[in-house]
Structures are given as C-alpha cells and as structure tokens.
Design brief:
By secondary structure, the chain is α/β, with parallel strands linked by helices. About 35% of the residues lie in helices and about 25% in strands. The strands form two sheets. It has a six-stranded parallel beta sheet with strand order 1-4-3-2-5-6, with helices on both faces. The protein starts with a strand and ends with a helix.
Length: about 325
Amino acid sequence: MQRWRGLEDIPEDWGRSVVTIGSYDGVHRGHQLIIRRAVDRARELGVPAVVVTFDPHPSEVVRPGSHPPLLAPHHRRAELCAELGVDAVLVLPFTTEFSKLSAADFVVKVLVDKLHARAVVEGPNFRFGHKATGNVDFLAEQGRIYDFEVEVVDLYVSGEAGGGEPFSSTLTRRLVAEGDVRGAAEILGRPHRVEGVVVRGAQRGRELGFPTANVETLPHTAIPADGVYAGWLHAQGEAMPAAISVGTNPQFEGTERTVEAYAIDRVGLDLYGLHVAVDFLAFVRGQAKFETLDALLERMAEDVKECREIIAAADQRA
C-alpha cells in the first residue's frame, strides 16, 4: 500500500481512483463499512482505492486546544486500512490555510486534479470545506460536473454498549475514558490499543515481583480510565497476555498518570527503548490505595490470576 503525505506526494501519473475522505480515527466498524465499500467499488471499476485523512485533527486548527484524544495514530490507521484492501492512504496536513479552502476548491484541488476520482464513498454525515459547508448533496452535484459518482453508506447502529447510538469515534472515546473497554471494542471491532516507547520508571514493579513495561504514550492518546485491565502487550512481533495498570500509583503517592503492562508468566524481558502496543481487553478493578504493602501484593496476585483467566477465555472464543 502506498502512503502519501500531502498532495505533492501523489505520483504525477496517478490515474482514476475511488476515494473516501474522513478523519477515520480508530477505523471503527462504521468506518470499516465505508472503507470496504470504497474498496469493493474500486475493484468493480478496476481502479485503486484511496483513503484521505488529515493531520492534525481538524478541530485542533479550527479551535486550538480542542484536539480530541486519539483512538489510533496515523501509522496504525494506515495499517488497518491496508488490512481492508486500501491501495493508498493520503494524509493531508491540516493547516489554517487549508481550513479556509472552500468545499468547491477542495473538490477540484484534491478529488479532481490530484486523485482523479471516479467515485467517492462517504457516510451520510460527511462534511468538508471551509466551515464544513460541503455535504454529500453538494458532493453529488460536483460529481455531476466533474464526472465522478457519489455513494453514501448508511452506518449500522451499535448494540448494547452504545445504547443504540450510531458507531462513532466520539462514542468510542467516551467509553474508553469511562474504562468501558469492552464497549469500545464492540464499536472498534477489536480491543482499544495504546502505543509508545518503553521507558524507565520507578521500577517498583520489579522490586515487588511484577516487572512492568512503562509505556510513554504518544501525544493525544485516548487512555482508559484509571484502573487494572486484562489485555495484551505487543512487543518484538509477539502478543503476550498482560495485566495492565493505568493511573498515578496512589500507593506510592504518585502524581503522573502512567500506562504499565506486566507480561504474565514472562521472565527476563528487556523492552526498554522499544516501541510497543498495549491492547485493552477488559476492566478488572479501579485504582486503589491499600493499607499495607502485603495487602497490595496480595491484590496484585489476584489481579494477575483474574487477567490470566479473562485472556484464556477470550482466546478460547477466538
């Protein structure tokens, strides 16, 4: 799959293509419906499928300081798009100047002049252009002028976790912030993932017999609510069952929120300096301060046991 950063990266000889545009943060099940349809239409037409997204999130430029927590960094979104059969991902730098581009100019500069769109596939609420004045009806009008078709994909409605709301990144972020990682996974179609480099912390986990990978998360990462979770630690091409702690470590009067993953039943791991990923499968308990160190150790052992059982059950269902 090709990855482009800015319009200037698109090959000069690029032909017709099927395009879908959006932030696509998380590439959740609603996004997947749109992207899969774009890929299917591209195959029908015998042309490539292109996903267009933005960096930073448009809200950060339009309303500085409002950058939402991110469900997936751009490299992860590209990986997920590739798994869906996308042929190219175009990341457009979203600048103040770009934000002032009218909907009509966006169509010409991006869809017509550069991507030579044969078809555009979007969700019903798609908006684009200066002050979000463009919508799917306007896009269809432009398609009649510039010879591309527009297809609108109705999004399914999520189940119990979303309370009947449509799939959305906003809903997923809310569930993650509440610690409802099972609900978030229902929308994403997979566990919520946090990535970053393993850095040296206070090393208390090692001293207590539960050495953890202290993950320095990427900027704007959507981090679950404080607590203990069952999940997986991905490192060096391996997915390891893990007990994950999120919080400030109140037992030792900590103040900085951290994400730490203990690889269950693994000994001698040295992950310092490596980029790793942590998948959150299930919430186990909230953050707590114990009366004694022995009480903490006893609870940690119970946490690991419960996490091991949750992960084993999930593996059996897979």
